[in-house]
């Protein structure tokens, strides 16, 4: 607010960013102070991006930026300019869960579910880089994510199961059709 401005309204500068979000090209005006997590949740309605600690500890806000897991609460929206962002909302294919999502479901790798989208996206980065991780690889790959409910063993089992499903190409849709055949 300038000295001779008595309106009481403070106008902050904005910058235009253009990025891909779950395959959709998006342009927006954002203030440089805006976090990517808030931009995705509030401006784009992607509420699967969870905000827990807001200081980089819990991993609930994890999204992929150009294929790498980032904590969107520690990333400014302007830093996402020109990048490809993937959130949990982009994983399902025409209603069929992604093999990682399906594996978390089958292995009961969640209870309250608050941490789950962050774990799923961190798992996607892990399996994209290492399709057959052992427990040590999983511990390292998911070390930035915290779950307060599950005790982690089911999450490990889900990651192994997802790796198997991705290797064999088994999908949720395959299971649906298999069930139809049995009926
Ligand atoms: S909300 Fe981002 S790490 Fe916890
Ligand atoms: S399932 Fe509740 S925090 Fe992980």
From TrEMBL:
What are the alphabetically sorted keywords of the record? 2Fe-2S, Iron, Iron-sulfur, Metal-binding, Oxidoreductase
InterPro entries membership? 2Fe-2S-bd, 2Fe-2S-bd_dom_sf, 2Fe-2S_ferredoxin-like_sf, 2Fe-2S_ferredoxin-type, 2Fe2S_fd_BS, Beta-grasp_dom_sf, Diverse_Oxidoreductases
Tell me where in this chain the 2Fe-2S ferredoxin-type domain is found: 15-91
What domain of life does the UniProt record list for this protein's source? Archaea
Q: Which GO terms describe its molecular function?
A: 2 iron, 2 sulfur cluster binding; metal ion binding; oxidoreductase activity
Residues in a coiled coil are none
Official protein name in the record: (2Fe-2S)-binding protein
């Amino acid at each position: 607010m300038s000295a001779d401005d008595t309106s009481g309204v403070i106008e902050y500068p904005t910058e235009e960013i253009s990025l891909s979000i779950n395959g959709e090209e998006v342009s927006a005006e954002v203030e440089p102070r805006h976090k990517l997590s808030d931009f995705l949740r509030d401006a784009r309605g992607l509420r699967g991006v969870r905000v827990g600690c807001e200081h980089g500890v819990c991993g609930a806000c994890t999204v992929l930026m150009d294929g790498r897991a980032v904590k969107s609460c520690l990333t400014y929206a302007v830093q996402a300019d020109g990048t490809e962002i993937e959130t949990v909302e982009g994983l399902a294919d025409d209603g069929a869960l992604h093999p990682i999502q399906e594996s978390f479901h089958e292995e009961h790798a969640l209870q309250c579910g608050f941490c789950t989208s962050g774990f799923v996206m961190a798992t996607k980065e892990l399996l994209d880089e290492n399709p057959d991780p052992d427990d040590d690889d999983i511990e390292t790959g998911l070390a930035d994510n915290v779950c307060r409910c599950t005790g982690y063993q089911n999450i490990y089992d889900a990651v192994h199961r997802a790796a198997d499903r991705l290797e064999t190409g088994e999908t949720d849709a395959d299971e649906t059709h298999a069930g139809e055949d049995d009926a």
